[in-house]
Each structure stands twice: as structure tokens, then as C-alpha cells.
Amino acid sequence: MFIRSDGKEAVGCLPMTLHPVSEGRLCHRGWNRFQNLRSFNRLSRPLFREGSNLKEVDWPEALQKSTEKISELLSRYGPRSIGVIGSPWLTNEDNYRIARFSRDTLGTGHLDGSYRFSGASALIALDRLFSGSFGSLGSIPAIGQSPTILVIGKESCRDFSPVGSRLIRAFLNGSTLILADPLCTRKEHFFNTLLPHPIQSLASVFKDKKSLPPEVSLRLFEPGLALIFLADQVDSASSLWSLLHSLLSQSPKENPLPLVLPLSRSPNLKGAWDMGMRPAQSGLTLHEMLAEGSEVRGLLIFGDDLHSHLLTSSGGVKFRNLEFVLAADRFMTNTARAAHCVLPIPLLAETEGTMTNSEGRVQLLRPFADPQGESRSVSRILHELSRRLGKEFPLLSEPEVRKEIGKSISPYSAAVSESDLEKVGGILLPAPTAQPTGELSEPAEQGLEDNRYRLLIKNTLYAWNRNQMIHESPVLSIEYPSERLAVRMNPLDAKELKLRIGERVRIRSERGETQTPVEVDDQLPPRALMLPSHFVEAVESLAGEATQDRMTRTVYFPNLSVSVEKI
Amino acid sequence: MEQAVLHKGNLKHWVDLVQGAFQVFVPSRVYGEIFFLPYAGQMEPDLLCGNAALPYLPPKDIVFPQSESLFSFTRNAGDVDLSVPERPSEKRVLLGIRSCDTVGLHWLDHFYLSNFRDFYYHDRRDHLTLVSVACTQPMKNCFCICCEGGPFLHPETTAFDLQLVDLEDRYLVECNSEKGKALIDLNRDLFSPPDPAILETRDQAEKKSHTRFLQEPTSYMSTAIRRITSNSVPPEVWTELGERCFDDGGCTFVCPCCSCFGVGYTAKGGTGCHYRFWDSCDYSGFTREVSGHNPRAEKGERFKRRFFHKLSYHYVKRDGRIGCVGCGRCITACPGEVGMPAVVERLRRG
């Protein structure tokens, strides 16, 4: 994608027609991607907390005071008192540097990505299935030739135009398209079949086959299947793992692996993961770092609004009670507001480096402009902090870091050629060589009793309005209007309960109850309710404690059977 | 209409002269993609020949940028200072614009200058001279011939400035305005009067071009116009087409005729600016009202509205032509494969 300038500022962007993935097509976020470059709300100077206020300070002071706080934590509690958080909104090189800083400078294994609550589950499932790193599980252009495509969640094509365009191409070529989405009332004409099941149930539905239309049973296990899903909406790693196993175990042995495409709303989910942005052997996950009684007392957060991702109120309490939080970011996010030190870093459009997309394609970012204000690169911040902590952290160039990455992270040994990276489309990582292993059974969702509703607690796309890209774009902020606390329900259910928009209902589950206003949504099927997972208080009132996902070592809220009454 | 011959060997000399008096934009490749960039002494000859090598972004952004500041403000001791961006002082020449994009710019002129004069647009447009190149060889998505968008321009339909017709080693230069004449007047010695044989060659080139552009007629515009105007397209067809629309807005952004914009602002500490940006009737927020009610919440409705505006006779009567010039960019941009020709074909089938 090009960002266009009038010589002074960004005035637009344009996809490349020659790019093998986009072919000149973008989603609406892509077409309006330049708008946050114009924002006046960028962080421009370092801030350090004095009492309840963040005050502007110069870089030496910010770095010195941060070093003192980090040193204090290290000397009083040891390295395990500090957690480090990287981000899918940073380049591969910066994530690699952060992982190295955490290990070599701080000596802590408490390293994780801000994606732990949305995205990590899918990557962990794939990682386990392929016994380690999995490179590329198929390319987006290849979707167009797949004879059968299973799409989980309708957003998977709607909000990812290059993927959606391949689905349409496959449809026009006569492929069978299957949509699995429990929140879909009416499938688009290009889907042959709608399976109204959540991902948690798909493995057992596919094993049992009784509830599957015959043509679906036939096509699913034939060679050339493509599986597309939104990684951010996979709650538990085990549900995806079981699904993949049910597909693989029933396919003839000679079938090649299906094309698997874990999409993400973040630009570099896979890259950050591949760069080792996850706990070391004895390290804690982000959820464990923020658990009550955890040994972590300080967090260094790079490049993401972690605070807005928190799924539990206890995580929020722990976050607020941390002795030191450093947030290196581009905008004044909720995380930055709660931090003790805020350091401005460049936007991705002002950064040199590489990113890895959902299909495992490593591509070069060329900076559009110099960093605004006094922003400093992550590399320089880590170098300065290390130097002040008495450790050596070399200021390596991006190509030098890429060479290191190529030596230490196996699929990336294929992505070190600078001349290949310079080419449009970059380098597609190699496919995994390991065969899928292991099996884990996942209990299917329970059926509904009469007069009860199924409440889905979803990491909705509405959560994107917590994203600065959307906040800072007038077009996108209109497209993603502010999320109001409300439970969404089908108009027929609303009519039956004599409810109008905005009226309140009492929702009861076996674990608790809550009261919320109602929003009518004709996209939802009858007897299904939807509550965005980010309304932590309402969700916890209903669901009680979150469910632990033992593979991911984090938490999620499973769907609930609830009753609803008008107040 | 004055006609003159310019040998291709003299093209650079002429453009260098033009560059002395104007800022010249020429089609140039960046990573293989074509953009109009300021002339810096070099031109790519294959982008100035008869092949319809279109930049993906139409040159409308030179007069109507994707985003531009309308005014900025600063709060000063209880008062507010407002400032409007400086009006462009430099005159510009767009060399190598294609017929379809020239027609598209005239459509924008009609929108921005006829009822209400938008001075941001006017100032840029007033300073702009268009030197178009007639197309003799279509690219794979071209269907301008179905939309009166090319491949050649004619003075009776389009008020172009200069048109270059590629005749192998020379151009026949057709001048249709005072602005165009001013460019020739920079050095008349570079131009020679055409002899009858050249004019005959030009007419033959246009005839051949029409044959090539018609080889695969992609559109049934008149049927679509009739069906849309008479509201005889069944709602389920719009629903089906709407399902294939991904709300990305790409078709509107690369359309030479789409003129809609939104207004936003950004501010911090008493300083800020209001700016406008390309908006799209694909977006659900385009018509959503403050109350939350959206008269076109359904995608099929939005899709219908878009094509009503492009093709209905109501607008043809008002604006003088359909809102499509047949450049084919929407075919490239649309992930749902429902660009203009696909829609027109679907509407024909009913």
C-alpha cells in the first residue's frame, strides 16, 4: 500500500494493483488508513507521573526516572517482578528486540503480547498442532482455487477484502463455500451452506456428521480444503485444535494439509508471535501477570493499549496497583493514562522494518515520513534503558536484526534476503514440515432448554473502536460508532418480550444476573443474545469467574444459557 | 479546432518549455504502479502512447485530494484565529491524462462549479491545463466506448484543452481551448500544420481504435439506465448485488466521477484544523442520522442508491451524462466482483 503525501502531510493511500495479495483491493480501514497520520492527538513528548498527573519531561529525565524505577524493582524483588509486553502493532524487528531486552537486560521470562486475550489462542493451537513454528499454512491467493472453503464467522470475509475477493472468485469458479456462524440469520448467496454452530461445537458436529447436510460431509474431507477464521475471536485454543483434528483425522491420509488462514485485526499478530513474544519457560502469561497475588510489580508495555484489552475486573485492579508501568505508544490511550511513564514512539508508517501477515508473508515497511514530535524508536529506547541499567544492548540496524532473526527463528531463515524483501509481495515463509500431532476432545455446547436464550459473549468487531486507528479517523469512527452497553437480540424476541430499543432487561444465568438495555439486531438469529466481552462488569455479573483455557494459560467467557425478562 | 503536428523527438523540448511556465505532471511508475508525478526531466514514452495505461488513482486527486485542510484555528487569549490554506499560485499542466479521466474531471467540474462554486476545487481546477492522450489500444478493463468516456475526445462533447493522438513517430495535437493554445504558443516552431494525409491517418486511427475497444462489448448501459430509471429492477437483485459489496469504498475512491466528501476535525490544546476527505456511499455511516436511524442501513439499498446516481435518467438529465466514464477501475477495486460492467450485465438479465 502507498501512503500519499502533498509534500507536507499524508493526504491519502492507495493499494498496489501489482501486489499478489491485495491486487488493488482493501477493506474500508485500509482505504482510510492514512487518517491517523494527520492526527493532532499524537504523543509528542515523554511524560512522567507526578502525583495524579502526567507531566511533560525531556527524554533524559524520562529514561533516568524509568531506569531508577526498574532498578528499584530489580533490587527489591528481583527480575521476576517485571513483565514485558510486546505488540502486534510493532514490527518483527522491534518485537524481537523487546524479547531480547526482556531476556538479556532484565532477565525476566515474564514476556507476552498484548494479543493474549485475542489472537494468541489460535496461534497456540496451530503451534501445538505443528510441533513448533508453522511458517505459512497456505497463501491467500490460493484460496481462489480451493474447491471447498470453510469460513468461521462472517466477518472473516467481510472485513478482509483480499480474502473476501478470493472467496468470491472461488464461488464464481464453482467452489463450495460453507459458513459456520451461530450469529448469522441469513447467509449471503455465495455461501452454499450455513452451519449455525460456534467453533466450540464444530469438532463434534464434524465427527458426528448427523447434523451436517450430506454435500457438506462429502466436501469437507476432500483434498484442497481452505479453513478461514478470525484468530481474534477464537476463545480457547482447544476448540480450534479439536476442530483441526476432526478435519484432519477424517481426511484420507494422502490428502495435503488444508489451507489454514488465521486472520487478525492487528497487522502483525503472527510476526509478533513468531518473534518470541510469549513467556519463557518459567515465565507468566499476561493473564497470569495480572492475576491477583502475582509476583509482577512492574510492566513495560510497548505499542498497544493493553488496558483496553483486559477481560476481567481483577486484571484491571492489579494493573492499577502496579508499582511501575511504562507505556511506549503513539497516542494517549487508556494504558498511557494509567501509566507512570509514557514514551512516544513512531507510528508504523514512520517505521522501517518487516511485518508478517496472516498467511505468513514477510513484507518490508518503508517509512512514509520522519517520526513526529520527539518520538524515538523502540530500538533506541531499549538501548538507552539498557545502558542506564549497566547492560549492553547494541543499536543494530533493521537488516542486522533481520539477520539475527534468520539465524535464531527457523522459518525466518528463508526471509533474510534483502533483495527478495524489496520485491512487491515480500517473502512467503515455508510450509511446516511436521505432521499434525495429538488430539484433544472439546465438549460440545449444550443444547438449550425451552424458554432459554443462548448468550454469546463475543470479542466483537465493535471493540475496534477502542483502536486508535479508528478513533483518529473521522470516516472509521462513523463506521464504528461508540459502543454502548447493551445486549443485542433478534427483533422477534424483542417483540415477544414487548421490548423496545433501550428498554432494560434482567438476564439470569446459573452463575449470576445483570441488567442491561436492549438493542435490536436483525442480524442475530432468534433465541440468541450477544454481549460484547469488553463490558467486563456486566459479563462478570452474569458469567461469574472466567473459564481458564489451559493451553493458552488465559481466560475467556464461554457462551451461557440464560433467561431474559423485561424490567 | 486547431490541429498541429508535434514530432515525438520534440516532445521533451516542448515539455521542458512548458515546465518553465507551469508545474507539469506526467505519468510515472513507482514500484511498477502508475502515478502522476511532477516532471523532473524524464518521461516514460510507453505511458504517453496509444495504449490505455491508466494510473489506478484517477488524477481527480490533483483538484480534489483524498484529504485536504479547509481551515485551521488557534485560540489566542479569548479570541480565535482562523486561517484558510493558501490558494495555489502555480499553474499546472497534466500531461498524459486519458480521455476517460478528462471526461471524469468535467463531471467533477459540473458538480463543484455549476450550482455552487467550491473555491477549494475551483482554484485548483482554474490553474490546471489538461493535455490528454487519445487511446488506440484498450487495457483489459476498459469500456469507455460504452459510456462516452473515450477512447478519443471530441470538442462537441468534452471541453478538453489539448489532445495528443499517437501517430507512431509524431502526435497530432488537437487544441480546443485558450489554455491549450497557450501551451502551443510557447514555441510554435515545434509544431507544423497537418497535411491531409495525416488527418486521414488520424481518422483511420480513431476508427481502428473504436474497433479494438468494441471487440468485447462489456456493457449494456442503455438497458441498465432504462431499468434503473423505471425502477423495474427487482429488490432481490439489489440484495444479491449488495451481498457482494464489502463496504470497502474502493470503487468510489478510484472512480473519476465520485465526488462525495465528509468533513472532520482534529484539535489539541486550542489548535486544530477542519478538513474534508473522500467519503463513500458504500459506507453505512454515509447516511446514518444522528438519531441512529439509517435510511439505507441495508447494503442492497446503498448499492441501489449508488447505481441510481450513476445511471438513472434523472441524473443524466440533470448532469448531461451518466456518472461513469468506463475506465474500469471499479473492476480492479471491487473484491466482490461487482464493478460497473458486472452490475450492468446483472441488471440486463433482470
What features would you describe in this structure?
The complex is a heterodimer of chains A (567) and B (350). Chain A is α/β, with parallel strands linked by helices. Chain A folds into four domains: 1-38, no CATH class; 41-116 and 272-408, Rossmann fold (3-Layer(aba) Sandwich); 120-263, 3-Layer(aba) Sandwich (Dimethylsulfoxide Reductase, domain 2); 453-566, Barwin-like endoglucanases (Beta Barrel). Chain A has 22 helices and 25 strands. In chain A, helix 3 links the parallel strand 5 (82-86) and strand 6. In chain A, helix 4 runs parallel beside helix 10 (237-250). The longest helix of chain A has 19 residues, at 59-77. The radius of gyration of chain A is 23 Å and the shape is globular. The mean pLDDT of chain A is 89. The N and C termini of chain B lie far apart (44 Å). Chain B is 34% helix and 22% strand. Chain B has helices at residues 11-21, 99-114, 119-126, 178-185, 196-214, 221-229, 235-243, 250-253, 299-311, 313-319, 329-333, 340-349; strands at residues 2-7, 23-30, 33-38, 67-76, 79-83, 92-98, 128-133, 162-167, 170-175, 191-192, 261-268, 271-278. Chain B is an alpha+beta fold. Chain B has twelve helices and twelve strands. The radius of gyration of chain B is 22 Å and the shape is globular. In chain B, the strands form two sheets. In chain B, strands 3-2-6-7-8-9-1-10 form an eight-stranded mixed beta sheet, sandwiched between helices. Chain B has two domains: 2-214, no CATH class; 221-349, no CATH class. In chain B, helix 7 (235-243) crosses helix 9 (299-311) and helix 9 (299-311) crosses helix 10. Chains A and B meet through strand 2, helix 1, helix 7 and helix 20 of A and strand 11 and strand 12 of B.
